[in-house]
Amino acid sequence: xxxxxxxYDLFILCFVQLVVATVLVLxxxxxxxxxxxWTGSRITExxxxxxxxxxxxxxxxxxxxxxxxxxxxxxxxxxxxxxxVSVIVIVxxxxxxxxxxxxxxxxxxxxxxxxxxxxxxxxAATHSIAEALxxxxxxxxxxxxxxxxxxxxNYMSDVLCRTRHSRPQPEADPNYQPMVSLHIPAYNEPPExxxxxxxxxxxxxxxxxxxxxxxxxxxxPAVWGPVEEYCRGRERVRFVHVAPWPGYxxxxxxxxxxxxxxxxxxxxxxxxxxDIVQPHYLRETxxxxxxxxxGFVQSFEGNRDxxxxxxxxxxxxxxxxxxxxxxxxxxxxxxxxxxxxxxxFRRSALEGIGGWNEWCISEDTEASLRVLKAGxxxxxxxxxxxxxxxxxxxxxxxxxxxxxxxxxxxxxRLHWRSLMPWxxxxxxxxxxxxxxxxxxxxxxxxRDLLMLAFALILLxxxxxxxxxxxxxxxxxxxxxxxxxxSLILIATICMMWTLRHWTPITRRRSVLGLVISLSASxxxxxxxxEGMSRREGVFLRTSxxxxxRHRLRSAFRLSRWEALLAVAxxxxxxLLSASNHPPILLIIIIAFQGTxxxxxxxxxxxxxxxxxVTGAEYRRRHEEQLLHQASAGRAPFNVVRPxxxxxxxxxxxxxxxxxxSPGDLLPGTADQHAQVxxxxxxxxxxxPSPTPRAG
Length: 695
Known about the structure:
Elements: H1 7-25, H2 32-35, H3 42-68, H4 72-92, H5 98-125, H6 129-161, E1 180-186, H7 191-202, E2 209-216, H8 221-231, E3 237-242, H9 248-259, E4 267-270, E5 276-277, H10 281-285, E6 294-304, H11 310-331, E7 343-346, H12 347-352, H13 363-373, E8 377-389, H14 394-415, H15 432-443, H16 446-467, H17 482-502, H18 507-519, H19 521-533, H20 552-558, H21 560-577, H22 584-611, H23 615-632, H24 641-660, H25 669-676
Parallel strand pairs: 1-2, 1-4, 2-3, 6-8
Antiparallel strand pairs: 4-7, 5-8, 6-7
Helix pairs in contact: 1-3, 1-4, 1-5, 1-17, 3-4, 4-5, 5-6, 6-11, 6-16, 6-17, 7-8, 11-17, 11-18, 14-15, 14-19, 16-19, 16-21, 17-18, 18-22, 20-22, 21-22, 21-24, 22-24
């Protein structure tokens, strides 16, 4: 049976099993381990989990035989391999049920199998140094992309299929009420918004706290003057204005910590200048510091004044996946980050690491990493105690994403050695899970850079196919595109499903939130390059006010490069579809990639339209929606204009390219496709079976 094994069999079987496992994890079957807890014996759980994994592999083997007509002998061997991988995951991930374990194992197996298959094909197909270098580069990019997506799927399967908590919730003593110093750093903030925030903080129901408002580097007295006037003479509030002052937000926070914080304060809290805080905030969070090991507590950061606007609602939904999936999963491993607002630090822990890092523009997350490294513990509570304003402009959204990504690159450059498993420095108390989570949090931003690199590679592949060149790229035609396509689509679908699992949002809202998430792909890719090539960053403030220039030209200027990439990819897909033997799956991948970049101009125009509507109109629409939902129940899934625009852009791009291309583009294209689509025998295989066209 081993002699009948073929890498191509494993390749196809991985695809089928991944589809089967995805159907299970998105169905009610994912609750199996929660509803039917095993006997309590870990050995019993592993044995029964192994039976379930073998059943899934057997079903995938049967479907592969029926759909592809492959011989059973080679598939059986491949099924044994996949079952063994699943059992290993079952042993290593005891806190998720068998459905989540098999799903994660199937995704990981599919990724590694695709890499092995691509490497084998590259070795057999390349005949020059240039071809070998090009194929090697593509495989390295595939590996990087797989690691990033695998990390995301890890979070999703953990949230969807977790059956027990691996970390007990710390005990909160409501009688523990130390003095708290709440810091509100501000720079060029609209005075009416900042004053509203201060009023909300003053209403906090807690016996012993102070408020330090520190305005740094705002040069216009008309901006900071009204805030100073409001704070003058108030019992709990101290206002400080400094200009010039180095270090951006971190420098201002260090100044507040070292010179303007009451010596009696044991807890330091940060609040953004636009956050409206709930009165019970401190009573519900400070109590966790009764545990002497807790160094900081982070709560859920919410948003306000977005109801009634589909654009701003989509922006809010695009944030939810991080707080509801990633933060909840990381909290189980004590690796949550501090996000800069609506969180509290133990003062001794913060001063013990030297305060805020003024070199890093993501000083909040960087400080939490150093606190964990020093041996403290962090805690995330998924409750919302404060709500801020969504960036009103698309440019502000891009600025925010650029700052987050650039800061993540700075953290990676500064702490990568501490995050490696071999670092055993006596001052490094990070666990293996903490190192992995913080490392992948920074590396995860490279997803958008990899998407840009793949887009350029797809354009190059299209040019080679259409020109009839015999330059050997790792082939992506025929069913060789099944795994890369399925890995991308399944990770995207699961990301949306996870959001809907934890929130009451509709499918429509999850799709629109995905559009907003993808719209910042290029700006994030640029921030990755800048963050790795430049040491110093510039702290770009996210504007809290809308733009006065509502011109269509400005919207397209913000997304002109994404629009050009989308058009180029759509034209490439259209030209390939007009060839004699179009590679269908490759065309789908190219069109999908084009749609990713098309989200940017769609979001820019969408935001332009959203800014033209007043806040009163949004509130009126929101009230109408509530009345409609109360009378008619949950609305069915309707693809509204922005989501429909994505589909329309793809269809128009493909159709226009297909119509514009000549009927008989290149005589040699069919032969070239036939040559590229031929399967390559695996080691030990006497003769490969013909590669069937994907049905």
